[in-house]
Design a protein that fits this description.
7 helices; 159 residues; single chain; 0% strand; mainly alpha
Length: 159
């Protein structure tokens, strides 16, 4: 065993130290980049969740009411949400990226297609078809679809 340690110590005496220092610097830089990327990912997730929670406060997570002129209301919030969507997209694993894009496109289509008339008709049909049933029975189709779309988007913040 002493011969083995002696051989290693003689080797280290003759070898230049710059490769070890270079490797150490590279390892420290890689660690710093990883820490910064984790922080950026956390910030992107927090910003995306915050945007949804503030911009859609009256509709998600607990549906209180549909705002007046729902199409304009949702479409006016799409640019900010799209910016946060794009920032978060960088941190989504490649195998989930297609599903993430599909979820976003479905949400955008819903925002562009919904009208006040559809909301009123959906709420009216929900009131007519259900009496004093459970809260799930009172939820209209549009509310359920909206909640599913937003929940699908938020599912990617839990990776």
């Amino acid at each position: 065993m002493d011969d083995f340690l002696t051989q290693i110590s003689k080797y280290l005496e003759n070898v230049p130290l710059w490769p070890f220092l270079l490797f150490g610097v590279i390892a420290i830089v890689a660690l710093a980049v990883e820490i910064v990327n984790r922080k950026r990912r956390e910030d992107a997730i927090e910003c995306f969740r915050h945007t949804i929670e503030t911009e859609l406060a009256s509709m998600y997570p607990k549906h209180i009411r549909w705002p007046e002129n729902i199409n304009h209301y949702l479409c006016s919030r799409l640019p900010e949400m799209h910016h946060n969507f794009e920032v978060l997209k960088i941190f989504i694993p490649q195998k989930l990226l297609r599903d993430y894009n599909i979820a976003w496109n479905k949400y955008c289509d819903f925002c562009r297609d919904i009208t006040d008339e559809k909301c009123a008709a959906s709420e009216q049909s929900a009131k007519n078809s259900t009496g004093a049933g459970s809260s799930n029975a009172n939820e209209s189709d549009l509310e359920a679809e909206f909640h599913k779309l937003v929940s699908d988007l938020l599912a990617y913040t839990k990776l």
